[in-house]
Amino acid sequence: MARWMVAAKKADFDGIAQKYHISPVLARIMRNRDITGDEQIEKYLHGDLSDLHDPLLLKGMERAAEIVLQKVKEQKPIRIIGDYDVDGICSTYILLLGIRAIGGRVDTVIPHRQKDGYGLNDHLIEAAAKDGIDTIITCDNGIAAAAQIQMARDMGMTVVVTDHHEIPYEESETGERTYLLPEADAVVDPKQPECGYPFKQICGAVVALKLIQVLLDRKEPEGGMSREEIWEQMLTFGALATVCDVMELKDENRILVKKGLELMARTKNQGLKALLVVNGIEEKELTPYHAGFVIGPCLNATGRLDTAKRALELFDSRDWKEAVTAAGDLKSLNDSRKQMTEEGLEQAIAAVENTGIGKDRVLVIYLPDCHESLAGIIAGRVREKYGKPTFVLTKGEEGVKGSGRSIEAYHMYEEITACKELFTRYGGHKMAAGLSMAGEDTIDIFRRRLNENCRLTAEDFQEVVHIDVPMPLSYASIDFVKELSLLAPYGTGNPRPLFARKGISIISGRKLGKNRNVGKYRIADEEGKSYEMIYFGDLEEFDRFLAERFGEDTVRTIYEGGIRPGRASVSIAYYPEINSFAGRQTLQFVMQHYC
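Given the sequence above, the corresponding structure tokens read:
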């Protein structure tokens, strides 16, 4: 069972509460997230677009902007080469939108996952030369494509790299690293050495947004959209990409996502609006959940099962009827992807349960018949189930391809760099990676090397539940829940506040949903006051937990009529929320964990 840990960071919570007109609980939650000092607190509570960092702090940005502006002035043909995931699609669209708005001759290419693979390759460079392209701008890729960039420059093309991935490096026997930057005409990547940008964890679309921001500061849009309209679209797509690329919602990312989601709800982009409509969320208050688990998967499905160009064409659509039809197709494609993912996940779990690899600290699962585009999703689901870094490999058109998803204690990019001679291509960051290998005979070597090098301990694998505040249920109220919204949006790096309370009595319950997999309960605290609680987790496991401690008869009675308070008491980790139904607002508690 998971360890519950209560945050115990010290501060003058009453003083902070009084100064900023918030509750001491809110002050404590901010301290738990290391938000300290007046400047950080003010920015966290009330930050706006003026708090975004100056794009010119990015190393290479001045040179990149000069090149693009000169090429636009000379009417040289520019080609944007992106990537087939949400970040790649959004960054491509942002660059297209901005460069076209200032009068540039620009087109786009998004590699086909199976035919081209990730990022730049020789074929794409040769095609650009054949098409008479003068300048290539990469987005969400390029930092690891030194050979292809040199090839383009040898052919007389100018290359500007915009990326956010880790910089490839070589490590000496003493551990000293030599970073391998591509010889492009300009490189903009916050992770490159000597880049003074104050926040490194931005996605590729935000790097693209920063470039267009500089261009628009120096050249007015030529007809069509205004600067404000372009800026609003860029913020919307930058927010979508930030959530879908699982960037930490800290610093400017949090401000950008908060504002971008507000703009998304009233977007004028026909394609994005159509996606909201076909998914039935056009009138909802949008959250990172809607971006990451509703809209994002529809876009990812195009790059996984078809071509991501369809998503880009959707965003560039001007006709509402065509946009709705195309958005519906993307949703249907995603529905197909879900079914294929479930089938692949079953195979992956069977491989872990029925072979020796389940004992490994790093899981390497080979699913030769799985669609290669689903490897990352399945790896993520397996990692969630077993709490281990996981790679899922598939049989590609040329050798073996795969994706990995990591846990917090395991820097995946650094670990695979330690055996990079096994790969024909690889890349990624701390929490995710992608790779290609020449053949199946390398898989066992890869698995063995990762596990031999693995320094993870038993403690690293144990789930930890981080409690912000042990708090009586009676402290929560509708006004308190509204105050908590100051801390949103929630996501990676800015989790939803979690509270805990002992001695909560389960009085009665019922099972909801088509599959009866949601539990709705009447509970009582130690003072006897009753409340509503809902649980979206593994209901069968919760029932087993109750039966082991209080007996099967007690569990049956809970669902059939109810029991007296105190007969079945548990500790819960929870958060309060407002349940709105038929115009009426009531308070309910969402149980996240129990013990």
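DSSP finds 21 helices and 20 strands in the chain. Try to locate this feature in the token string yourself.
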